[in-house]
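Quick illustration, no need to memorize.
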Amino acid sequence: MPNTERLFYTDPYQREFSARVIARREMASQPAVALDRTAFYPTGGGQPHDTGTLRPAARTGDEPGVGVTDVVAEDGLVWHILAAPLAADDVTGALDWPRRFDHMQQHTGQHILSQTFIVTCDAETVAFHLGAASSTIDLNRSDLDAETLARAEAAANAIVDAALAVSPTFVAPEALACIPLRKPPKVTEDIRIVEVAGFDWSACGGTHVANTAQVGLIKLVATERRGSELRVSFLCGGRARADYARLQTLAQGLVGRLSTGQDDLIDAVERRTVESQALRKDLAELEGQWVESTAAALWSVAEGHGPVRVVAGAFDYPFERAKRIVQTLRTRPGAVVLLGVRGERPQLVFARADDVALDAGALLRTAVAAGGGRGGGRPDFAQGGVPTDTGLDAALLAALHALPKD
């Protein structure tokens, strides 16, 4: 069976092509066809596959064609995994061109960036991944600081601005000795060298723009230290412009909210942060005072029940606030606290002082059973929930009835 001719090697800008189906099979439970020639790039070398459509060459009307969802190279053939069966033998293929051009920008940007890191700080790329949102390279150094990274980014963009030709060429193995490759090729035949004129030579089977100006822009957006390596995330071309637009929208939103200029945003946020911290401190103090006074008021009307005093009732407090009240009350000698919190999901908090011989967890289980809920806890502190406020009232009543009489 003949191999698939890979049109993207000779013209990565070719968006449509005609071809003939030379094999059919199922892959990943989907129909797949191999073609005698294709412009669809298969996943490989860190670059994702192309997508697009295949349609019958002799179509009638405006038939949309069948979606190409994945592309796989295998034993010289390029397989096109389809969204639906395709019966025609003669087909026309059409790439999702924005996706392809995006990949060309990112991959060419990676070549420029990898060589730039070697030139500026002697850091070599050990891995590359072209992701859906951003791309990454892993460098063999983890000690690069922000200033060094900024210099590398500026140097990479100088290569973009220089509009250097990007030229792919197949070379014989014996010619490699004369080429200053960034790293040795992984294959021993069909060796394809992508040259960024006078700057970088890399063995690569991917698709690239014709000159560096079409990369548009290279922007480093994040770094992550991974042992002895540094992962650098970057955006090129359309992705970088889209990210700039996103950041501009965020900045303008903050300008409006903070009533300040973009250049003063950091100072404005710092002032708001200091003010917020002071307000939170004041609020915490007021909250503490409110909890103490509320606990004192509840204790003042607590009913004697044998040797203990019982604080019981259902309230509309936020649950965390109710828990603080309970924790404050249980520090009083002889205290038994049975609080309910009304709301969409009613809850119960039971507790007792250290000098009271009562199992709050067992008492709560009795209460939630009566209210149609569930819960549990320790002998000194327990919590649970019931489905309705009516169930909450029933649970509290059951708890009061279950208290020891002596």
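The chain has a mean pLDDT of 93.
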